[in-house]
DNA sequence: TTTTTTGGAAACCGTATGGTTTCATTTATA
DNA sequence: TATAAATGAAACCATACGGTTTCCAAAAAA
C-alpha cells in the first residue's frame, strides 16, 4: 500500500476499484456509504480509495467527521487514448491472424 | 504466475506489458527479439508474454525452435469502452469539483 | 455529558507479482 | 556430428497486494 508506481493503469486493474469508480461517478459518497456497497471490511475499501486518490481518480474532502469521496476521472482519458491506439484490432475486417500470416517475414528481424 | 483473475485490465496494468503490446502491434516477433528490447532477463519477458496470452491479447505460434508472438488486441475494446463511459469527466466544461459542489446533498444518502 | 458514528492507523496474514539464476531440451547450423 | 540458438521450466527471492481484526480519536447526536 506504499506509493510506488501508482499510475492510473494499475489503479483500475482491480475490479473493486472499478466498481468504486462507478459508484462515485454518479454521486459523491462518504467512506461508509461506499463500504456499504461491498461485503469486504471498511478498512479494505478505505485502502482502495486511498489508491484511487494517489493517482488522482478520486479526491477526498473532510467535512467534520466524515470523509467525502468524489470521482475526478480526467485521468481515464489517458487510458481511453492508449486503448484507442489499437482500435484497428477490433475495427478491421482483417483479422489479427490474417494480418500475421500476410506479414513480410523480413519485418521480423528488428 | 498462476491463472487466476487474469483479465485484460490486470494484464495491461504493468508498463512492461504495455510496451510489449506496443512492439507486437507493429510486427510479430519471436521471444528473444522481444526480450532484446528490455534490460530484464528473457524469462522475465517470457512470463509477461504468458500473462498476455492468458487473457488473449497475445497469441503464440511455435515454429521449429522459435516462439512467434503476435498481438491480438481485440480485448482492448473492453478497456476503451469502459473508459469512454466516463468521457464526460474530461470533455465537460464543468469541472468535477464544480459538479461536486453543485450536487444535491440529498443524493448522498444512498 | 454519555454514547454513537465515522474513520484513521497499526499489526498481521496468505498469496500474487515481478524478477533472478540455473539447467534441460529441442532444433538449426557449421 | 558437435555446437550454437531459442526456449521452457523449476527453484528462489523480496516486496506488493488485498484482505482482516483490533484499537484509538474526533465529531455529532441523545
UniProtKB/TrEMBL annotation, chains A, B:
KW Protein biosynthesis (keyword) present: no
Natural source organism: Dyadobacter fermentans
Domain HTH arsR-type per the UniProt entry, residue ranges: 1-91
Entries under InterPro entries matching the protein: ArsR-like_HTH, HTH_ArsR_DNA-bd_dom, WH-like_DNA-bd_sf, WH_DNA-bd_sf
Record has DNA-binding as a keyword: yes
Pfam entry (one): HTH_5
Annotated PROSITE patterns: HTH_ARSR_2
Keywords attached to this entry: DNA-binding
Highest taxon in the source lineage: Bacteria
Protein name listed in UniProt: DNA-binding transcriptional ArsR family regulator
GO MF, one example: DNA binding
Gene3D superfamilies: Winged helix-like DNA-binding domain superfamily/Winged helix DNA-binding domain
Amino acid at each position: 500500500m506504499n506509493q510506488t508506481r501508482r499510475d492510473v493503469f494499475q489503479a483500475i486493474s482491480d475490479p473493486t476499484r472499478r466498481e468504486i469508480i462507478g459508484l462515485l461517478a454518479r454521486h459523491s459518497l462518504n467512506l461508509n456509504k461506499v463500504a456499504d456497497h461491498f461485503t469486504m471490511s471498511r478498512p479494505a475499501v478505505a485502502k482502495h480509495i486511498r489508491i484511487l486518490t494517489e493517482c488522482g481518480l478520486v479526491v477526498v474532502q473532510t467535512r467534520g467527521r466524515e470523509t467525502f469521496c468524489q470521482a475526478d476521472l480526467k485521468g481515464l482519458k489517458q487510458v481511453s487514448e492508449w486503448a484507442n491506439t489499437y482500435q484497428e484490432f477490433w475495427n478491421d475486417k482483417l483479422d489479427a491472424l490474417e494480418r500475421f500470416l500476410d506479414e513480410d517475414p523480413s519485418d521480423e528481424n528488428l
